[in-house]
Amino acid sequence: MIGIIDFGSQYTQLIARRIRELGVYSEIHPPWVDLDSVVASGVKGLILSGGPMSVYDENSPRVDPEIFELGIPILGICYGMQLLVHIFGGRVEKADKREYGMAYFEVLENDELFQGIPCNFVVWMSHSDSVVELPEVFKVIGRTRDNPYGAIRHKSLPIYGLQFHPEVSHTDYGERILSNFVFRITKSEKNWSMEKFVEDKINEIRKKVGNERVLLALSGGVDSSVTAVLIHRAIGDSLIPIFVNNGLLRKNEAVMVLETFEKLGIKVYFVDASNRFLDALKGVVDPEEKRRIIGHTFIRIFEEEARKFGRIKYLAQGTLYPDVIESISVCGPSSRIKSHHNVGGLPEDMEFELIEPLRFLFKDEVRKIGRILGLPDFIINRHPFPGPGLAVRVLGEVTKEKLNILREADSIVVEEIKRAGLYESVWQAFAVLLPVRTVGVMGDERTYDYVIAVRIVESVDGMTADWVRLPYDILATISNRIVNEVRGVNRVVYDISSKPPSTIEWE
Ligand code: XMP
User: Fold this and answer.
1) Mind listing the pLDDT tens digit for each residue in 356-408?
2) What is the pLDDT of residue 347?
3) How confident is the model at residue 322 (pLDDT cuts 50, 70, 90)?
């Protein structure tokens, strides 16, 4: 395993991904991690990530200098390298010339780190501080035109520093450099594959759960679905997946999810609580109030259903690695705690031990596992869908009639985006029902009907987003179909706002 110490770089997760792509397992730790436990976990090498701070800032993150006495190879990247220099007694200063973007790198020493790589290549830089004096025990092994200390290594220990980012795709041979570090320098072996992960996890869950039972809130999204199938492989019908229809799902969604799980041989406990949710939402127009009511109602129903099964020891959740990292990272600009993955707020007398088998995986790894486990593409490639469902896409008060109109319009949007081959390249594509009526003319008759807004965005993580420049003819088809096929709608508009300043959802 390779350990990565996270100093808050936007690229930390990317480093972890790159190492896993090489077939070696990697884990991210905060700077204050207990080194003994890292060593005990069998780590073969450590990478010190980049970060937004300066090493001479008072509150900048540090590592325990003992790390250099463990005898484990270390690679410091950007801030990680500057920290090495600082700790070993060299000097780091704000550079006269900041280096951002492309730089030409020249290898000065034929080190193992550069095996199989030409002497000159392009690297990606992103730093404002620079090393200005090396500690005595270090030497330079590569440079760029503006930076005489582009790459350094300890004279006798396997400790390296790179000022550039080998993990980003703009650095030529970046993968080769990381691979040299992992295989030649740390002598790690290729032993990480999704197939092996699945096999190990199944055995681990089986051993842990024994004769107990596991409860799971199945939403039909990829995370909870993969969690369900994985645990079912381990313990069969001791898994109790509960799927609640809150009446706010998309067209045919409940049926499709239930059919999928039936085909997989997994018994799902289906609760149709549509009316309860709709009753609770009657007269409510405030978006946050809708969310609160939906969350509360869900927990109450989940609790009632769970109690029917008697005492249950475990609760499974589809928490992913980015959520776990986000909640421990203090330095990164992206520090943030997400709560909507958790079935938080369960009453205290229902104490569960958590099982989170996807806790160390990235989304695309979860998708791979889904495929290995035989989940259909319909589940694996689905767009994110908010917990409060269509309630935040029917603006204003939610009624059965409006939900039905929205469902039909939404399914046309998704169908046409799929037909155009764009479904997998956009982040989300959906319809929103606006609480206004406008005048139209159909045949020879005046109409006075609802407006549908079409929202199609591209995004990497949902934090920022931009509207998709959809070809006019696809927009035209979507608009024509909605107005012709959905009763109650006579106008369609396309949302051309980015996030920020707008958000992806309208409520
Ligand atoms: P916004 O609208 O904040 O959405 O730009 C960002 C992403 O989060 C989803 N979203 C939610 N997901 N519960 C959820 O589980 C919510 O209340 C919620 N609100 C927004 C949204 O679909 C997008 O992917």
Assistant:
1) 999 888 888 899 999 999 999 989 999 999 999 999 999 999 999 999 999 99
2) 65
3) confident
pLDDT at 336: 36
pLDDT of 455:
98
Reported as a single tens digit per residue, the pLDDT across 83-125 is 999 999 999 998 777 778 899 999 999 999 999 999 999 999 9
Residue ID of nearest Cα to ligand 1 atom 6: 462
Assigned domain for 385 exists = no
Looking at the structure of the chain, the number of domains it has is 3
Which residues have CB under 8 Å from 328's CB, separation 6+?
30
Expressed in angstroms and rounded, the spacing between residue 386 Cα and the centre of ligand 1 is: 5
Q: Is the CB of 388 under 6 A from ligand 1?
A: yes
Domain CATH number, residue 446: 3.30.300.10
CATH code at 44? 3.40.50.880
Instruction: Give how far Cα 151 sits from Cα of 75, 142, 162, Å.
Output: 10, 5, 5
Query: DSSP string spanning 429-477?
Result: EEEEEEEEEEEEEETTEEEEEEEEEEEEEE-SSSSSBEE----HHHHHH
Q: Is residue 506 part of a domain?
A: no
CB 383 near ligand 1, within 6 Å = no
Q: Which of 152, 185, 218 is the last residue of a domain?
A: 185
Active site residue ranges: 78, 165, 167
Same domain, 276 and 417: no
State which residues form the domain around 88. Answer: 2-185
Helices 12-21, 321-328: inter-axial angle, 10-degree rounding: 140
Kindly give the distance from the C-alpha atom of residue 350 to the centroid of ligand 1, in angstroms, as a whole number.
28
